[in-house]
Amino acid sequence: MTRRELLAVLGTAPGWDRPSAGRAVAPVAIARARSYDDGLEGVLGTLFDQLGGLGRLVRGKTVTIKLNLTGSPGLRFQGRPVGVTHYTHPKVVGVVAHLLGRAGARRIRFVESCWGTGGPLEEYLLEAGWNVRALATAAPNVEFENTNSLGRGKRYARLKVPGGGRVYPAYDLNRAYEATDVFVSLAKLKEHGTCGVTLALKNVFGITPASIYGDDAGRDEPNENPTKGRQAILHEGRRQPSASAPQELDPASRREAGYRVPRIVAELAAARPIKLAIIDGVETVAGGEGPWLEGLRLVQPGLLIAGTNPVSTDAVATAAMGYDPSAGRGQAPFRECDNTLKLAEALGVGSADLGRLEVRGLSLKQARYPFAS
Fold first, then answer.
1. For the chain, which has fewer Cβ within 10 Å, the N-terminal or C-terminal residue?
2. In angstroms, rounded to a whole number, what is the distance separating the alpha carbons of residues 210 and 224?
């Protein structure tokens, strides 16, 4: 890294928040939120206004919100509520839904491929301690769908990777990801062992149904009652998905999670484009993505970040965490994996070039909160 690049990452380079002339891409907005009781509606409303407003994006449309509920809801870090550690916080979720409804969204659907179950998403949220009734009434026409299996649909949707893909040519997903006008990734500001960071892009890894890509997926057909995660197929490539779905392009390729997961995430983000990326960094954890990891610690960056392009939004969020979003493998935070942002950029999903991005609201210098211990 050159000295100028280092200064940029530290948020001290002149013109840090100004895009190169004539080269600006989708803007990213940052806001300060000291707590989940700190006027979230006003903070998020201003954040969305800085992006041009929600109305032009969602009015009269079906909006599908992918939550970040990684791991079992019964697994807690230091006994804390999951929303202040590794899950998206329910208050952020509720306010986002309320603002979408107020902006004219016709229908709002919360989705997640819930770990270890094909049961109702509402039950999963109740186990996590969420007020499901409050979410259901946050806006008109709110729905919930556990996309770990077929759910309410009659068939899976096959979403193709533009350009044919590198790991899989297409993915079979719950119909909720096809039957929508606006797809929102509502993520948590965290690091990740096999992706470097887990933000708006990595959140879409969870759209894959365990019925097809899980450790107990059916060999020939989906297992509509999955009880396990996606380690064997997606992380390690020790077996293929259900034969009903597209198979790997190259079964002889590297079986390492740090190679596979970033590429799968980039492919999913290309196959199912994200129209709005929102990252909850009010309270979170540093040192990894969940309480099953050693060395985890509680942090309070006090940030909310949003953008209309997931690569650009993740690039700004990565920089706010004190990292270089263009870093290569072997450099923090991508020490043991390839850079998902650059892989998604190569697929045409968006730009990770900080020199082309316009940051609105809080400046990156003001927002910077180093995650490295």
1. C
2. 9
- Would you write out the chain's pLDDT as a tens digit for each of its 373 residues? 343 343 344 443 323 333 333 445 789 999 999 999 979 999 999 999 999 999 999 999 999 999 999 999 999 999 999 999 999 999 999 999 999 999 999 999 999 999 999 999 999 999 999 999 999 999 999 999 999 999 999 999 999 999 999 999 999 999 999 999 999 999 999 999 999 999 999 999 999 999 999 999 999 999 999 999 999 999 999 999 999 999 999 999 999 999 999 999 999 999 999 999 999 999 999 999 999 999 999 999 999 999 999 999 999 999 999 999 999 999 999 999 999 999 999 999 999 999 999 999 999 999 999 999 6
Contact of 167 with 264, CB cutoff 8 Å: yes
Q: Can you read off the two tokens belonging to residue 189? A: 């500001």
Alpha-carbon gap, residue 146 to 123, rounded angstroms: 10
The two structure tokens encoding residue 85: 């550690």
Residue 298 near residue 80 (C-beta atoms within 8 A): yes
By C-alpha distance, which of 188, 200, 191, 113 is closest to 151?
Answer: 113
Please provide residue 135's backbone torsions phi and psi, each rounded to the nearest 5 degrees: -65, -40
Q: Strand ranges (DSSP E) for the chain?
A: 28-32, 62-66, 107-112, 142-146, 157-160, 170-173, 182-188, 190-192, 196-198, 276-281, 284-286, 297-299, 303-307, 359-361
Q: What angle, 0 to 180 degrees and rounded to 10, lies between the N-to-C axes of helices 90-102 and 40-49?
A: 50
pTM over cut 0.90: yes
CA 13 from chain centre, in angstroms, equals: 29
